[in-house]
Amino acid sequence: MADLHDPPLPWSTRLWFAFACFFRVLFDPQFAARAWQAREAAALPPAERTEPRQLERARSAGAPPAADAAGSVAAPAPAAVAPAPAAVAPAPAAAPGVSSALQLLSLLQREGRLVDFLEQDIASFGDADVGVAARMVHEGCRKALRSHAKLAPVRREEEGAKVTLEAGYNPSEVKLIGNVSGSAPYRGVLRHRGWRADELSLPTPVAGHDASVIAPAEVEL
Fold first, then answer.
1. d(CA 200, CA 127)
2. Which pTM was predicted?
């Protein structure tokens, strides 16, 4: 976890990092779980925080389990007996919702090389190089998104406009931020208009199509 006194990241670095994290959280459940744990840890008082990497190192070094509030140490769980190896079964077909998400990810990869960009280690690249790559990824992904999805803002007002949320507003459409207290009606300033998907049109997969293959390997002859 970053220290509060660490130097701030440049704006261009924060831009591509936010872009990368958005799609990793959307399509990578394990990464999303780690990001959620980091979010919860950041909300705890400093004395109660536990660094995930420190916890992993302690476990790998054979450190004893932490004591609870009463000072007692939890007994280690009994070792599980390894089951007998079973025959490998074919992978089940992806659920329709998962298949659609994988198909959309495949389109973003095909048009904008999104997966290549997110999986590339760019720590050694300069901000200018990352900016050029992000521009190319943005152009291709925008083309794919606009070709297969129709998006519309949740709120029609311009960002920065004053809005009033009456009682009964839909919390899935509007998220309250800042100093939230009391009950509706709420009066505040629109910081982000939000997005909703009005339409989603994906190509019909052919028979035998494996949705888990986001991009096939390429062999030049």
1. 34
2. 0.53
